[in-house]
TrEMBL record:
Pfam families (UniProt xref): GntR, UTRA
Keyword Transcription regulation: yes
Entry keywords, A to Z: DNA-binding, Transcription, Transcription regulation
Name of the featured protein: GntR family transcriptional regulator
Residue span(s) of domain HTH gntR-type: 3-69
UniProt KW Glycosyltransferase keyword: no
High-level lineage: Bacteria, Bacillati, Bacillota, Bacilli, Lactobacillales
Length: 238
C-alpha cells in the first residue's frame, strides 16, 4: 500500500519533534509547506493528526508547540470506564464513531512495538455518563492479534471483553500517562465544549501476559466532568 504525502510528512515531523525540547515552537504551516513542498492543506492535516497523538499542541494566535509527558502516576488498578462510571452512580454509554484499518506510521509503530507499515486497527469512540459526552477515545490495536475483529463485536461489549471472549487475549497490566491540556477545535465538537477548554489527555499502553503491547489508546477527557482518584501507598517508608 502506497503511503500518502500526509503520512510521509507525519513520519518526518515525528522524527523532528523527538529531537526538540518540551515547549519548543514548530515552524508555521506556511514554512512547513514551503520546506517540504506540500500544500498547506496537507500540512494542516498532518499537524491535526500529531495534535491528536498529544505530541504537539496548537495555540490559536501563538503557534504550534512540542508537548512532553513527564509525569507517570500509578493508579494501582485496572481501569474500566464502565465500572468507574457505575461506581459513581452514573449510567455509562459508548458510541462507536469509526472503525478502520490503516498502516502504522512511525509514531504508532513505536507505541505498539510493531513495524512501520504494518496493519493496525483504529477505533474511535465517544464515552458518555448520564447522556453527557465526557471522553473521546482513539484506540489502536495490532491487526496481527485481532485480525478478525469487527465493529459489531463492540456494539454491546467492552473492548477487553472482546479481547478475552473472541481472541483469548488477557490483559495483564497497563501503563497510563496523564497530561493537562486544552481541547482542540475538532475534539471540542464531540465533547460539546468550547475550543480551548481545559481537558485531560491520557495515553495508555496495555500488555498481555507475554509482555506484548496489545492496545494503545489516546483519550481526551473533559476536566469539568471527569476526575481520577490516585492512592499512593507510603506505608513502606525508607
Amino acid at each position: 500500500m502506497k503511503i500518502t504525502l500526509q503520512e510521509q510528512l507525519i513520519n518526518l515531523l515525528t522524527n523532528y519533534i523527538q529531537t526538540l525540547p518540551a515547549n519548543a515552537k514548530l515552524p508555521s504551516e506556511r514554512e512547513l509547506a514551503e520546506k517540504y513542498e506540500l500544500s498547506r492543506t496537507t500540512v494542516r492535516a498532518a499537524l491535526m493528526e500529531l495534535e491528536v497523538t498529544g505530541m504537539i499542541r496548537r495555540v490559536h494566535g501563538k503557534g504550534t508547540f512540542v508537548n512532553r509527558v513527564d509525569l507517570n502516576s500509578d493508579l494501582n488498578s485496572s481501569y474500566s470506564f464502565n465500572k468507574q462510571m457505575i461506581s459513581l452512580g452514573k449510567k455509562p454509554q459508548t458510541k462507536i464513531l469509526s472503525f478502520e484499518r490503516k498502516e502504522a506510521n512511525a509514531y504508532f509503530a513505536k507505541n505498539l512495538e510493531t513495524e512501520v507499515g504494518s496493519q493496525i486497527i483504529k477505533i474511535k469512540r465517544l464515552r458518555f455518563a448520564d447522556g453527557i459526552p465526557v471522553m473521546l477515545e482513539r484506540t489502536y490495536l495490532p491487526a496481527d492479534h485481532f485480525n478478525l475483529m469487527t465493529e459489531s463485536m463492540l456494539s454491546n461489549r467492552s473492548l477487553y471483553s472482546v479481547f478475552s471472549e473472541e481472541f483469548n487475549e488477557q490483559v495483564y497490566y497497563a501503563d497510563e500517562y496523564f497530561l493537562a491540556g486544552i481541547t482542540s477545535a475538532n475534539d471540542s465538537k464531540y465533547l460539546d465544549i468550547k475550543e480551548g477548554a481545559p481537558c485531560l489527555n491520557l495515553r495508555r499502553q496495555t500488555y498481555d501476559p507475554h509482555n506484548q503491547i496489545i492496545e494503545f489508546t489516546l483519550s481526551v477527557a473533559r476536566s469539568d466532568q471527569f476526575a481520577y482518584h490516585i492512592r499512593h501507598d507510603i506505608s513502606n517508608k525508607s
